[in-house]
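Lab notebook, bench 4. Continuing the backlog of folding jobs that were queued last week. Each job is logged with the same field layout so the records can be merged later without manual cleanup. Today's entry covers Protein white, a 530-residue chain. Filled in by technician R.K.

JOB TYPE: sequence-to-structure
TARGET: Protein white
LENGTH: 530
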Amino acid sequence: MEEIELGDGSALDPAAGVTYVWSNLNVYAGGGTMFKKSPKVHILKNVSGMCEGGQMLAIMGASGAGKTTLLNVLTYRTRKLEINGDIHINGKAVDKRTVAGVSAYVQQEDLFTGIFTVKEQLHFNAQLRIGKEVSQRERRKRVTEVMTELGLNKCADTRIGIPGRVKGISGGEKKRLAFACEMITNPLLLLCDEPTSGLDSFMAQSVVKAMKRLTGLGKTVIATIHQPNSEVFAMFDRLLILAEGRVAFLGEVSEAHLFFTRMERPCPANYNPGDHFIYSLAVRGGKEEECRQFISHVCDSFRDAEGKDMDKRIEKAMKPPKNGDPLSNIKLPKSPYRATWFNQFWAMLRRSALEVIRDPLLLGVKIGQTMFFAVVFGLIYLNVNQKGSYDVAARNLSSVLFIFITNLTFSNMFPVITTFSAVMPLFLREHWNGLYRTDVYFLTKTLVEIPIYLIGPFLFMLTSYYMVGLRAGAEYFFICSAIMILVSNVAVSYGYMISCISKNYQTALVLSTPLTLPLMLFGGFYVQDR
Ligand SMILES: Nc1ncnc2c1ncn2[C@@H]1O[C@H](COP(=O)(O)OP(=O)(O)OP(=O)(O)O)[C@@H](O)[C@H]1O
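JOB STATUS: finished
OUTPUT FIELD FOLLOWS
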């Protein structure tokens, strides 16, 4: 059978789609650190399941059942969790790189660059997530296609918005945009965490229909789903119901009806089956013990009857095919990044520049703050260079310059680390999604923001120049100022570097002081030495 060439350059033999299998997954959280112990929580308990190419699997369950944790484990996006169990694709154990190479993941939380319009966000994704073998024309066509498919044409030129500051597209449009950003890569395996939440029933249906269309191309679609309406529910081929971290049911939708009838909870006529299954396995307030006993009974019954057949199928699906490489129908990218270094650099440079131009708040706050401190320091050290003998005045000036350098270094570095912590979730998601490398982010951010951090210290030193009442040695003052401006910019760069490397706010903060100290001392000794 002929291979399907996908938009991202990968290929899929429709006769052998991606069979995704997971077996006996046990996930634990907590346990504490060496300093502080906390109880270990067993989140997923012996969870097994599978989804074949051309199928759409719904993962359902009450809130807290473990749906999101399962999807995070299946996409290797877990941090600080202990995981045991096996994950196989087409019968072969796979690692994070393989899963990242074949899959796309629509996460529950929508994270975007708020200053972008919907179309710009999709073009940005098309530039960085589609392989270089796909032409620009094809990419533009793909953007137009997904916008039409997901009803995003109306808000194509509307900014996404920044929560609490810039009103942008609606919550439902954001959800569809998140979905469109993943669809654009034409993935072999699509995982979605609640893709329909926040959507009206028409839009929820459109999103699920778009997912269903992917299964028609032989792709594998797995989604957690909350309160699906009957039409949406009917579109899923298979159902995995989780309850209290255990598998309560796995199989076809029609089999679920039979199973719940056997459990003496038949779905009433004209009742939404999805709602009924979730409600039956929820832990209700005031009846916790009773509900937990029922859940335990349902999970045990499934494991000891229907689950046995499923286990056999899973066991079989985990064995590699007798002949050939089980992953031979998948062209895995050599690098986790689809775009070249230069393409990543230009796309990120443009985005970083637009962020400053379209949201000049940071620029305004930074300059306003610097001017405020320039005036305060200027008033404290007003005409300091005019007082006493020439030697005393010179010594005073050196001390004042040292204080200036301390202020400029720290006041540039800490805001960088603090503002970076706000964009850290987006950076981490895009970086792990293979959009760009850490060094590209660091370089483009630094390059774009350096002019801002040049203007601030320049105005600071200019104000100080007039306020300290320079008696002589203007040349000395200007050289020291240049050194200070340089040092304060290296501090900005340091701030970004520490944040990018540590990828963690607390670590960046802890590292910032010892790393800034040599810089400050260099500047300090320089101004003292003259
Ligand atoms: N890192 C963690 N530490 C401790 N408990 C955790 C951690 N992560 C998840 N849990 C717990 O595991 C359970 C499952 O969480 P999960 O987010 O997977 O549920 P969910 O089914 O997706 O819920 P919802 O539908 O409300 O999003 C919850 O009780 C949650 O509190």
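OBSERVATION: The longest strand covers residues 40-51.
SIGNED: R.K.
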